[in-house]
Write a structure and sequence with these properties.
Length: about 130
């Protein structure tokens, strides 16, 4: 089981604006900020999560942003996947797959894909029947 994941972004302020808005639709919010001073010059880090657990991190340090990362967030239902897609587009993300069934993964795989400001493929997915 993965405890947390993180990757560098090219513009931490722009990424923060995007993720603050896009992840709110999934009940995920900024929980922790680690400054560059706190890391001894190894970049600033923002931890997003819920229930006291920051499990998704973005940072200004740790190497150049590569735009090659894919992260899928679990959604409780189809409506939440739809809300994520709408919120992420409004936050400046680029469509990389509108909400819908992806039967090539499995019969009830319902997902939506967005490219963040660095080109990372961010997904919300619900594995189950519509509720």
């Amino acid at each position: 089981m993965i405890d947390h994941i993180g990757f560098p972004v090219s513009d931490l302020a722009a990424a923060r604006s995007f993720y603050d808005r896009a992840l709110a639709s999934l009940g995920i919010s900024l929980m922790m900020e680690v400054t560059e001073e706190m890391t001894g010059g190894h970049g600033a880090h923002l931890g997003y999560g819920r229930d006291g657990n920051p499990f998704f991190w973005i940072s200004s340090g740790g190497g150049p942003a590569g735009g090659t990362c894919h992260v899928a967030f679990a959604a409780p239902d189809h409506a939440t996947v739809d809300a994520f897609h709408k919120a992420a587009l409004a936050a400046g993300g680029r469509d990389n797959g509108a909400p819908g069934l992806r039967p090539h993964y499995h019969a009830s795989y319902y997902g939506a894909f967005i490219l963040d400001p660095d080109g990372n493929n961010i997904e919300a997915v619900h594995h189950g029947e519509p509720t």
